[in-house]
Every structure is written in structure tokens, then in C-alpha cells.
Write a structure and sequence with these properties.
The protein has nine helices and 20 strands. Strands 2-4-5-6-11-12-14-16-17-19-20-18 form a twelve-stranded mixed beta sheet. Strands 1-3 form a two-stranded parallel ribbon. It has a two-stranded antiparallel sheet with strand order 7-8.
């Protein structure tokens, strides 16, 4: 099998006025001399992409952090995302869009999953107090070769961030309390679906409390109601093996982000029945669309008053209260605009 020559992009580059940089390698790993970024401090948009799906952090290494104070858009996919040192976000306070992840891969049964390393590769024993989860090595071609990834602190202040999209390990390790440092966030997407149903996440009300306010009673129950606030959040997508404590979705949709317009739950249902989702959606003043991939019996859908788009005219569609995407079809909560029941 032919082996692609290792091309290191950015070596000897001197582009002090560069504003946009986009590099894409489809079949092989992208190698970048991070020193080129240090020499391009005017960058406003950075996109680095390769087709890597599976990896070992120990083999792939991590970059040293870089300072891009004018960066507004950062999109890293594949090994550039895995190598990215998130401490760089401490120096990117103007960031408006952030995408980090690896590509999903297709199984023989056409399922699309994300590769997430084993827990041992992610969190080695004794790593909590170390700056890096592993032993630092040597600097070569602008990136620091270390055995494990840098420890993620989830304390980066990004007051202008509007769009956040995390996939694979980045979504799996996501700290919901970091959201309190993203007051301008409008769109949030977290995709964790991994092979075999592994790497599930369970979310409790503690995850939605602002840091420093986790007051508990003697039984360990949260007694503080001081949750993080995301008044500008309009769209949320949770994909993967998520499970939730009781009241999580009510708290998220009515307290944390009361101006939500669209909720997408893929491979999970938020811990609510369809009837509970309809009741909750009707309480959300700006709610427009609920997308669920959980399968529901057709009789249940119609008994709850949802009307298929196929059976009402465009004029009636315009009068809809909320749009539901269930079992791959579009239904409307029409608030009784039709007098007679509709059957599929």
C-alpha cells in the first residue's frame, strides 16, 4: 500500500496580514506547523479539515496553544480537532462560531457513529491534577508531542460566541456549566453517538447550576434554583445516548433557555413521553419545532391531537402552533383548528 508523503503545511510561511485560512485533506492526516498561526495573528477565520475518524491520542499528539486574538470563526474537523489545544480559547475572546469534532463513520448497517476513545485513553489515572494528561515530549514542527491530550478546563470566556457545534469526544466531555460563560449563544449542537451504545451521558439538575452555587441538603439534593441563563438560545440539538433526570427538560426549556424555538433530540427522548413533550412545548412561548427520532405509535400521535401535514391545506399549515417531526413525518399542533378527527 502506498503511503502518502508527510506534507507539513505552514512551514516557513510568513503571512502577517492573513485573515482567512482553510486547509482540507480528504484521505490522509493534515499536518500543520502551528508556528505559522503565531505568525498570522490577524486571522479571523480558520478551517482545518481531514477525514480521520479513528485515532489514538497517544499516537496523534497535541499542538501547543496559539494566540489568535482576532479570530471569529474556528472550524476543526478530524485530527486538527483532536490535536487542538483548547487552552488557545483563552486567547480568542472574539470568537463567534466554534466547531470541533471528527467525522462520523458508516457501518455496514448504514448507522452513522462517532469514534470516542476508551475511558483509559481519555482520563488516565492521576491526570486530574496535571496540566497534561500524559508526559510532555519534545516540540517538533510547531506542535507539542505529548502522550495524552491536554486536560480540558471548560473555563474559557467567549462572550460573543453565537454558534457552538461539538461532535464525538468533545460533546461527550462537554461541561454544561461552561454555558454560563457563553451569554450570547444562539445555537447549540452536541453529537455523541458512539458504537455499541457506549459513552452515554447522564445529565442532572446539578449540571445546569451556575458554578459555585451547588448548594445541597444533607441527602445531597440540590436546593439552589440559581441555574445558568441562556436567554438568546434558540436552537438545540442533542444526538446520542443521553439520559436525563426528572425535570431536566422542563428546567432547560423554561428556565435556562426560555426563548427556545427548535429542539432536536436524536436517539434520545429527553426522559419525557410524547404527551409530556406536547404539554411542555405548549408552555414555551416561542416554540416552533420539535424533532424526535424515538418511534411512537400512530394511534398515540393522533389521539394527542397532532395532525399530519398530508391532511390539511397550506392555509391551515400557516396557522399551526407548533411543528412536530415524529416517525419521519411532519405533524402540526393545530389547537383545534379542525372540527373532525383526522385518520392516517
Amino acid at each position: 500500500m502506498a503511503v502518502a508523503p508527510q506534507v507539513i503545511y505552514g512551514h516557513d510561511w510568513d503571512l502577517p496580514h492573513l485573515r482567512t485560512l482553510s486547509l482540507e485533506v480528504n484521505r490522509f492526516r493534515l499536518h500543520l506547523d502551528v508556528d505559522a498561526l503565531h505568525r498570522s495573528r490577524t486571522l479571523e477565520a480558520l478551517r482545518l479539515y481531514d477525514g480521520i475518524t479513528h485515532y489514538s491520542q497517544q499516537d496523534i499528539g497535541s499542538w501547543s496553544s496559539f494566540h489568535l486574538p482576532h479570530l471569529k470563526k474556528l472550524e476543526l474537523t478530524g485530527s486538527p480537532a483532536v490535536r487542538f489545544n483548547l487552552e488557545s480559547l483563552h486567547h480568542s475572546s472574539r470568537l463567534e462560531e466554534l466547531t470541533l469534532g471528527t467525522l462520523s463513520f458508516t457501518h455496514e448497517d448504514l448507522r452513522h457513529d462517532y469514534f470516542i476513545p476508551s475511558p483509559d485513553d481519555l482520563e488516565p489515572e492521576g491526570s486530574d491534577n496535571d496540566e497534561f494528561s500524559g508526559t510532555p515530549g519534545t516540540v517538533s514542527h510547531g506542535y507539542l508531542l505529548i502522550g495524552k491530550r491536554p486536560r480540558w478546563t471548560w473555563d474559557w470566556d467567549l462572550p460573543l460566541l453565537c454558534n457552538l457545534r461539538l461532535e464525538g469526544v468533545f460533546a461527550y466531555k462537554f461541561d454544561f456549566q461552561w454555558l454560563q460563560q457563553l451569554p450570547n449563544l444562539r445555537n447549540l449542537s452536541l453529537k455523541t453517538k458512539a458504537s455499541g451504545g457506549l459513552h452515554g451521558r447522564h445529565i442532572t439538575l446539578k449540571n445546569l447550576l451556575r458554578r459555585g452555587l451547588q448548594q445541597q441538603d444533607e441527602d445531597g439534593h440540590v436546593v439552589s434554583d440559581r441555574y445558568i441563563s441562556l436567554p438568546k438560545l434558540e436552537w438545540i440539538n442533542l444526538s446520542g445516548h443521553w439520559t436525563f433526570d426528572e425535570m431536566i427538560m422542563e428546567t432547560l426549556c423554561l428556565v435556562v433557555s426560555p426563548n427556545l424555538r427548535s429542539v432536536y433530540l436524536v436517539f434520545c427522548c429527553g426522559g419525557l413521553t410524547l404527551q409530556e413533550w406536547i404539554t411542555l412545548s405548549r408552555k414555551m412561548p416561542l416554540m416552533e419545532r420539535l424533532y424526535l427520532t424515538t418511534r411512537f405509535p400512530q394511534d398515540e400521535i393522533h389521539d394527542l391531537g397532532l395532525v399530519s401535514k398530508d391532511f390539511i391545506g397550506e392555509e391551515e399549515c400557516d396557522r399551526k402552533r407548533i411543528e412536530y417531526v415524529l416517525n419521519g413525518k411532519v405533524y402540526y399542533d393545530c389547537d383545534g383548528i379542525l372540527d373532525s378527527p383526522i385518520h392516517p
